[in-house]
Design goal:
The protein has about 160 residues and is an alpha+beta fold. Helix content is about 15%, strand content about 35%. The strands form 2 sheets. The protein has a 9-stranded antiparallel beta sheet with strand order 6-5-4-3-11-10-9-8-7, with no helix packed on it.
């Protein structure tokens, strides 16, 4: 007995229907969705990593990135500040945070021409001290290098953090 043409074409039609069709509007496809920019200040996306460096004089640095604020004082040990999101107030971005010891820290960014092409001027208040600098965009490679260097700076604990009492 010969199979009818119908029995051959029906499974093929069903298989073709299972393939799905591409989304007509590529923007609606979640796989093609672009990451929305964060709050903007002076043409700078504040959800991207920034590094604040002094305009002149003392050598310090402050890395400002989502989920991470790290201060490196001149000749001192790196100090993390509690990560906070910026508050946009009167043409400025303000990061009210604190040191691990509870000392108040306020980081303020304002649109302004600054050293080396930076478009954001920065003021960092740590307790009574005020530091002035410029915020520069950091590349992903710079962030990875700094995180790698931080990991290397941590002491190796062969006991896997187990106390040896």
């Amino acid at each position: 007995m010969k199979p009818s043409l119908c029995w051959i074409l029906v499974p093929l039609a069903l298989l073709a229907a299972c393939g799905g069709t591409p989304t007509e509007n590529q923007a609606e496809d979640p796989a093609n969705a672009a990451v929305a920019p964060g709050p903007m200040l002076g043409g700078v996306d504040l959800s991207t990593p920034l590094q604040i460096r002094p305009v002149e004089g003392r050598d310090w640095a402050l890395d400002l990135a989502p989920g991470r604020i790290l201060y490196q004082p001149e000749g001192g040990k790196q100090m993390p500040f509690y990560p906070v999101s910026p508050r946009l107030e009167q043409a400025a971005a303000v990061y009210p945070t604190q040191t691990p010891d509870g000392e108040a820290v306020t980081i303020t960014l304002r649109p302004a021409q600054c050293a080396e092409g930076s478009t954001l001027a920065a003021e960092v208040r740590i307790g009574a001290a005020t530091l002035k600098g410029c915020a520069h965009k950091m590349t992903v490679e710079q962030v990875h290098r700094e995180m790698y260097n931080e990991a290397l700076a941590l002491p190796y604990d062969a006991g896997n953090n187990a106390s040896s009492d």
